[in-house]
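Hey, sorry to bother you again with one of my protein questions. I've been puzzling over a protein and I'd love to understand its fold better. Take your time with it, there's no hurry, and the full record follows here:
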Amino acid sequence: MTAVVVLEAAAEADAIIDFVKAQEGSVYAPSPSRWSTKLPQTSLGKVDKSALRARFWSDRDRAVN
């Protein structure tokens, strides 16, 4: 699982991962993380999950693990 995180305040990646580990446990801490300034949105203002997934699956012919 990959987490895409949008930072709204000044924070370090390691500090966020350590916080998640302390609150929820190591299982929930995102190891392959992507840091972004904003998420792609549809015309309705919702997160465009198709566009978000396309970033990670564009070099493959099938979107299956």
The longest helix spans residues 13-24.
